[in-house]
Write a structure and sequence with these properties.
The chain is of the alpha/beta class. It has one domain: NAD(P)-binding Rossmann-like Domain (Rossmann fold). Helices cover 41% and strands 16% of the residues. The protein is built from ten helices and twelve strands. Strand 1, helix 1 and strand 2 form a beta-alpha-beta unit. Helix 1 packs across helix 7.
Length: 296
């Protein structure tokens, strides 16, 4: 199957390229496809001649989005909608990646797909706009909301913790925000499995929104402690975690205190459930430590 993926360097895109599952995966990014230039999108996707499109490219700077609202809305809203429109015009299925940040974090339990969207910041607003644009342009699209992505690629929390631990004995980490840490490698495997289930359906099947994130919940401090435990086991750096509140770690954008996603609908509909986050985090940390050792 020929799968066109928007983006070239994002964590999930990089994981899809590594996993690929024997599929012909075409990564589309700048300058050929630029989500901030809507007129570049359809020609690039048509030229790829895909059997399915994965809409993974996005403006991901949560704090930066507060300062660059128009750019974030253009890329995550208008650009995502144009990707969906191009897939619909080609009559191919579309998988679009969205975020837990479309919720405000005030719910007591995990969020379901039916819960009301109420983003706290510009990034969340732009992802909500993207979901709406995608559904309007491609009624058969499958939208996947995920959370707290980490991987061996790019910039992410897990890599930051390992980098800081190399020079610090203690690291202050927020302990009053809870979510589902998600390995981009697990996410890539799930997206490919879903793509295989959607293949042949064309674009006309009724679309749905699903939550798809790592199994189990954690605070950022919990994740940091798991990272350091796995790093120690692999012979890597360790640091003591000092739990703090979000209020003690000022940032330009507000984050939801509760980012937990209930992922049962995806398991029921497609038999897809991501592994426990602790096991996946340990695998990624071990890989990063081994890679660093080889570099030295």
């Amino acid at each position: 199957m020929r799968i066109a993926v928007t983006g070239k360097t994002g964590q999930v895109v990089s994981a899809l390229i590594e996993r690929h599952g024997g599929h012909d995966l075409i990564a589309l990014g700048r300058p050929g496809l630029d989500l901030s230039r809507p007129d570049s999108i359809a020609p690039a996707i048509r030229a790829a001649r895909p059997d399915l499109v994965v809409s993974a490219a996005a403006y991901t700077g949560v704090d930066e989005a507060e300062l660059h609202r128009e750019q974030a809305m253009a890329i995550n809203g208008i650009g995502a909608g144009e990707v969906a429109r191009a897939a619909w015009q080609l009559s191919v299925p579309l998988i679009h990646l969205s975020s837990d940040y479309v919720f405000d974090g005030t719910k007591d339990g995990p969020y379901t797909e039916q819960d009301i969207l109420a983003p706290l910041g510009v990034y969340g607003l732009s992802k909500m706009a993207g979901e709406r644009a995608v559904r309007a342009a491609h009624p058969g699209a499958v939208i996947l909301r995920t959370a707290w992505i980490y991987s061996p690629f790019g910039h992410n929390f897990v890599k930051t913790m390992l980098r800081l631990a190399a020079t610090r004995d203690e690291i202050a980490v927020v302990a009053d925000q809870i979510g589902n840490p998600t390995s981009a490698l697990d996410m890539a495997d799930a997206v490919l499995a879903l793509a295989e289930r959607l293949a042949g359906d064309g674009a006309r099947k009724e679309g749905r929104v699903f939550h798809l994130a790592g199994s189990g919940e954690a605070s950022w401090a919990d994740l940091a402690e798991a990272v350091f435990a796995a790093s120690t086991a692999a012979g890597g750096p360790w640091a003591r975690v000092r739990p703090i509140t979000a209020a003690q770690y000022p940032a330009a954008a507000m984050r939801p205190a509760n980012s937990r996603l209930f992922c049962g609908a995806m398991a029921d509909a497609h038999g897809i459930r991501l592994p426990d986050w602790r096991a996946s985090a340990a695998q990624v940390v071990s890989l990063l430590v081994r890679t660093q050792e080889k570099a030295i």
